[in-house]
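Tokens as discussed.
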């Protein structure tokens, strides 16, 4: 849509990757990662989430595509497993059980080509790029999760509890309404 920030993108495929992002990811503003996996699989990182897009028979999509969105706040881990000739990137979230996978597997549960949270890797050079992507995604997820913790509802509850106690003091005649108003402004940072 607007800017390709290009932290990582598959060499020589920038136009193709941006076209796919335009077709499958609505409203993206920035792409930080755009990588192509082994068999019509694509990994994207935008401002708010990562997307795993899978196309074609090898990924279990005879007709249509699979577009899997994973918000950074839900990501618990991103790992890259690469062995002799193949491997995969796997995104872990709360509620999504991880299981060892093999590119050569015919079992849907252990085939990374068909798993919605995996991208297959077919060579060592790509594995290095996907490892950089995993590191970047984990960093972005940690930033989002830290920001969410700093604006948690627990902080708002502390204000509410303190204001209720102060209001009780006004009702009991211990402090005046003016003292309550001054303290309320102080608590709320006004």
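Sequence:
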């Amino acid at each position: 849509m607007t800017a390709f920030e290009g932290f990582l993108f598959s060499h020589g495929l920038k136009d193709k990757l941006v076209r796919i992002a335009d077709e499958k990811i609505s409203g993206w503003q920035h792409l930080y990662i755009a990588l192509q996996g082994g068999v019509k699989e694509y990994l994207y990182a935008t401002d708010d989430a990562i997307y795993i897009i899978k196309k074609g028979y090898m990924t279990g999509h005879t007709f249509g595509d699979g577009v899997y969105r994973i918000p950074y706040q839900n990501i618990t881990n991103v790992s890259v497993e690469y062995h002799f000739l193949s491997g995969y990137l796997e995104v872990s979230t709360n509620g999504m059980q991880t299981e060892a996978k093999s590119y050569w597997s015919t079992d849907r549960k252990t085939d990374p080509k068909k798993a919605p949270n995996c991208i297959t890797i077919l060579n060592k050079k790509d594995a290095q790029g996907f490892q950089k992507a995993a590191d970047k995604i984990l960093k972005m997820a940690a930033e989002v999760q830290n920001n969410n913790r700093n604006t948690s509802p627990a902080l708002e509850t502390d204000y509410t509890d303190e204001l209720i106690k102060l209001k009780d003091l006004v009702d009991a005649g211990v402090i005046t309404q003016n003292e309550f108003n001054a303290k309320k402004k102080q608590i709320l940072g006004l």
